[in-house]
Design a protein that fits this description.
alpha/beta, Rossmann fold, Ubiquitin-like (UB roll), 3 domains, 15 helices, 43% helix
Length: 364
């Protein structure tokens, strides 16, 4: 999973990036650096810890999330937020993470003059739509430019595509994000080679000050009321505190969190949100060599899940030996799970469940 971090200047997006990846990237528009910061975060999963203790494998491999902190900007203009390298990077992500400022810091002026997270969410949502509207306009212009060299039948299709694209533009101008639409076959054909930024799932991290952490539940509820579209959701965190805690050892961090009453980490909150909004789950593979978590989409079948391990396993899939995590822990071993009847043989139609421990049988 690859997530692109966006936000207005001074929102603390690089601070949040550091908190999520345990990185040390320079904040403040990267000090003039126009390249993206890229970091990898391991997905916290207590099930892996338990299984590692049971198998004592040579290695344990958690699922991973790659975060891409887009280049800093020096204004709040949408042309700066989504242009150049930013668009190139965004075409390779699975979701957007919009860091929104809700903290007060007199030494860092807000680019729009005041702290108003609702306004900022609305503005960046508009900027995303504006970027898509402009992209569709360029696509329409390219089709029109190429009409003269087309055959009669191709011209008919081109005219239909232009009509469809203009209708999509009109919907976006009314505020409809691409992720919130159901598409007809004609629309799918018309945008098949067009990247739409507003089609990406949207995560919002409300970056608050430490004093507002006690209001997290209230603010989470407000975000839920704002983010009502498809594949959108938000969570509250304190980027500065999370960045400081992320630089500590796991033991020190746990002790400090306990003392501060800070609860689960910002990474855990964002991972949980990401999995929920994107419709993701994890299945597990175990053995003396490796215990590993694999991220897949909900409702994937066993052969499709096998393909995340290796394409040859999907191609030669025969069946999957399957046991739920809780059943396996209760049994204590694969052999006992087989005796108990909780280890099952599942075929091609089986839909993988979160926490399934799988062993794929295949032949190529």
């Amino acid at each position: 999973m690859r997530i692109g971090i966006i936000g207005l200047p001074g929102s603390g997006k690089t601070t949040v990036f550091n908190a999520l990846t345990r990185g040390s990237a320079q904040s403040g528009s990267f000090g003039g650096n126009r390249s993206a910061n890229i970091g990898v975060a391991h997905v916290p999963d207590g099930r892996l810890d338990k299984l590692t203790g049971m198998f004592n494998p040579k290695r344990t491999v958690p699922a991973e999330v790659t975060y891409v902190d887009l280049p800093g900007v020096h204004s709040a203009d949408s042309a700066d937020l989504f242009s150049g390298e930013s668009m190139g990077q965004l075409q390779r992500v699975d979701a957007l993470l919009h860091v929104v400022r809700a903290f007060d810091n007199p030494s860092v002026a807000h680019t729009l003059g005041s702290i108003d997270y609702r306004r900022d969410i609305e503005k960046v949502n508009f900027d995303v739509l504006f970027a898509d509207i402009s992209l569709l306009e360029r696509r329409i212009d390219r089709i029109k430019d190429g009409v003269k060299g087309m055959k009669a039948q191709e011209r008919v299709q081109a005219a239909k595509n232009i009509e469809v694209l203009q209708a999509l533009q009109a919907e976006m101008e009314e505020g409809t994000a691409a992720r919130d639409k159901s598409y007809t076959e004609e629309e799918i054909l018309a945008i098949s080679d067009t990247f739409l930024l507003s089609k990406l799932p949207l995560l919002v991290a409300l970056n608050v000050g430490e004093d507002d952490l006690e209001r997290s539940d209230e603010l989470d509820a407000e975000l839920g009321e704002l983010l009502t579209g498809n594949k959108a959701g938000g969570a509250v965190l304190c980027g500065r505190l999370e960045e400081e805690l992320a630089q500590m050892s796991p033991e020190e961090e746990a002790e400090m969190r306990s003392g501060l009453g800070a609860g689960e980490s910002g990474l855990e909150r964002m991972i949980r949100l990401s999995y929920s909004v994107l419709g993701l789950i994890s299945f597990l593979t175990v053995g003396e060599d490796e215990v590993r978590a694999w991220t897949i989409e909900e409702k994937m079948t066993a052969p499709q899940a096998a393909g995340t391990v290796h394409s040859d396993i999907e191609r030669g899939f025969i069946r999957a030996e399957t046991v739920g995590y809780d059943d396996f822990v209760a049994a204590g071993s694969i052999a006992k799970a087989r005796t108990d009847g909780t280890l099952r043989q599942e075929g091609r139609e089986y839909v993988v469940q979160d926490g399934d421990i799988l062993n794929f049988l295949f032949s190529v």
